[in-house]
Amino acid sequence: MTLNPVFAAAVLRKGAPALSGYRLSGVEEGRLLAVVSQRGMSVNCTLARANRFAPIADAFPLTCSLLKPHLRGLLDELWSVHRPGNYQLTGEAGAFAQFLDAKLSSGELAVEYAAEVFRYESKAWDLIQTLRSSVSGHSATVHFTHDPSILIKCLERDELPPAGLPARAYAVRLTLTGDTLEVDLVGTGLPAGTRRA
After folding, report:
1. Of 1, 27, 81, 93, which alpha carbon lies 20 to 30 A from 103's?
2. How far apart are CA 191 and CA 73, in angstroms?
3. What is the pLDDT of residues 23-49, one digit of tens each?
4. Interatomic CA distance for residues 175 and 127, integer angstroms
């Protein structure tokens, strides 16, 4: 329940019927109802959410900024079906990436610029993962439909980009050199940047 605050809230609101999907003894059911009613449960759920969200925000900061109005609902949906594989909560960024990719591919999530910003950050994240493996190939090109210099600058300031930017082809080159990710926004007028991996 700590890792799924929506479920914890349902148990608190509905009581024993919310636990009917589990084969619990009366003692077990009573203990869970007592736990969810404790004042500290809300704090535990908040800490669990923060710990699960931290690697997602670290891997996909611009995507999270762009999706801010939808993010809580998306995370609640993800965390209602995805359970961490370990107590260190590793794998949250990967689970989020798969979940969001499915939402965007199916058209279920239609937020302007989301697909290209997410694609950009996914490529950057993939490159950074090569530091932890023996995978070769430390550069990638990401194609944008809207001016990445505008999108990236706005989202780095945690501002939504202006709606209805004109569409045309842009390319962004990502290169991992050592532990530094170099970003070359080709033909956009935005100077190259770097990010520590």
Report:
1. 1
2. 35
3. 999 999 999 999 999 989 989 888 988
4. 8
